Amino acid sequence: MRRKIFWLLVILTLITAPLTSQTVYRYNHPTRGAGIAVTGYANLRNATILTTSYVDTESVEFDQFKEICLLFDIVKGSLTSFEYKVFISNNGVDWFQEATESIASGIITDVPAYGTVTLATDVAYYKIMPFNGRHIKLQVKGTGTATGSSCSVELLGSY
User: Fold this and answer.
1) Is the pTM of this model over 0.90?
2) Cα 37 to the chain's mean position, in Å?
3) For residues 116 and 5, what is the distance between their CA atoms, to the nearest angstrom?
4) Which helix (H) or strand (E) holds 3?
């Protein structure tokens, strides 16, 4: 039901929204979705079979947004899990992986971040995160056997 409501809002908004670039849509009126004011949309990856090696999604310029919502729609197939990495760039050429912190014995260590989801069945989920770049892309992969799997990735932005 959530997915149907989301797509209805996206379709209704896209009908009245002007296109500002090849893949990023700007909305005339903010819509509510995933708990944030949605003002932009981009399709980073169409539903395509996952591989066991990281594969780049499309990259888009999304610099006017301060918060993003990544929408993943994953068909499990024979996979055991799904992994993704987020990269930002200021020029669309030099890419920097999102980092996280590990704290042990009072020492803070920055480590490259990646998300992982153990798959018991097909899943559609979202991840909200702050965004301080100009361009964004992801790398995605599956673990296990890729037979019958697929993954699409979409991006929503808010101010």
Assistant:
1) no
2) 16
3) 26
4) helix 2-16
C-alpha 154 chain-centroid distance: 5
pLDDT digits (tens, 9 = 90+) for 22-79: 344 444 334 433 344 446 888 899 999 999 999 999 988 887 788 889 999 999 999 9
Give helix then strand counts, H and E, for the chain: 1, 13
**Could you identify the residue written with the tokens 């992982």?**
116
> Collapsing DSSP states into helix, strand and coil, what is residue 101?
strand
CA 56 to chain centre: 12
Which structural domain, as residue segments, surrounds residue 36?
2-158
Pairing of strands 150-158, 25-33: unpaired
- Measured distance CA(80)–CA(118) in Å, rounded: 6
**Per DSSP, what are the bridge partners of residue 19?**
25
| Residue 34 CA to its chain's centroid (Å) | 13
Q: What is the dihedral of CA 101, 95, 48, 75, to 10 degrees?
A: 10
Count of structural domains within the chain: 1
Give per-residue pLDDT as tens, 101-121: 888 899 999 888 888 999 999
**Residue 149: CATH number of its domain:** 2.60.120.380
